């Protein structure tokens, strides 16, 4: 019986250039982003400028986490307590958590068979709810039809915040994920596409939004030391009206991210090479359904999702358990009990008047998820696919 013996949580090491630079930062003692000499750009400043250039967006703020970026995105967008915010019912807990943190009310939208947000349900709920804000989660790296999403946003005058935690480096029809909406938020947590343990970015084209985000992040009156930022005149009134929710990134994290950002596109291709091997394996197993990715979607597959149509909860549990016995760690998004990083929408019980979404429950009841660390070789991905197909076929 074939067994896989590597860890699903072991990531690649930090590049040597990042390690060397981190040592220099530690030796200097100047870890705080504003601890600079006159006219000097800190490591955090340089990272923000480089990420803004990579994205083709004028303004970028480095944050302490992707979840924090989501939180201040809501605040900087002007969300008020009681406002309704459309968001995916199939997402990770920080997304509805950020909405709740702002005092707003999540309006959950169904998932579709391709694991993206259901665009018919989005349009219906945009029309019925009166929501003015939409937090779109590109969940597990699946990019929805952004042409139709932007048409819906325009039709209902929705302020779009993109949660790009899983789509850094991805695009739709050649336009980068995170450049469609009014604000985009990214994560640099260990299991994302660049790794600083915790961290994130907020990007926007709107000068007033970025000015509020910078003040929220804990700049005090040091906003003039930001370089991927609007001119100081934009801060004139905003600095008096905007509270400090300190959540800055430090120079140590920034310096280990810079060489990873420079190599991001190459790393994205490596993930996709591994994904295609697994996808090919799954397409050969009649019991497994894996959605075809549309040509317009240039995805980054640091994880893979697939469905087991017709499998009962008992069968799903058995597949997960037997794969674990053979070294393969799968997560089930349909489990009634939250586990690890997965939770079904009906476990977010802090949401008042939590809706019933039978379509979402049905799709998630068959949906399994697996990380694809770059520490796995292509041959090892072939082995993983064989083991999963073997287990599924026996159940």
Outline the structure in words.
The protein is an alpha/beta fold. It has helices at 16-28, 43-55, 66-77, 94-101, 119-129, 146-155, 207-217, 235-241, 251-262, 264-283, 313-325, 358-364, 378-393, and strands at 59-63, 84-88, 105-109, 133-137, 159-163, 171-172, 175-176, 183-187, 200-204, 297-298, 303-307, 331-332, 367-371. Strands 1-9-8-5-4-2-3 form a seven-stranded mixed sheet, with helices on both faces. Helix 6 links the parallel strand 4 and strand 5. The radius of gyration is 21 Å and the shape is globular. The model has no long low-confidence stretch (mean pLDDT 97).
Unreliable parts = none
Q: How many beta-strand elements?
A: 13
* Gap from first CA to last CA: 16 Å
* Order of adjacent strands in the largest pleated sheet: 1-9-8-5-4-2-3
Text of the CATH class of the largest domain: Alpha Beta
CATH-derived architecture of the largest domain: 3-Layer(aba) Sandwich
State the secondary-structure class. Answer: alpha/beta
- State which percent range the strand residues make up: 5-15%
Fourth CATH level, the homologous superfamily of the largest domain: Type I PLP-dependent aspartate aminotransferase-like (Major domain)
Number of helices: 13
Computed Rg: 21 Å
Please tell me what the overall shape is: globular
The topology string of helices and strands comes to: HHEHEHEHEHEEEEEHHHHEEHEHEH
Total domain units: 2
Task: Find the CATH topology of the largest domain.
Answer: Aspartate Aminotransferase, domain 2
Please give the largest β-sheet.
Answer: 7 strands, mixed
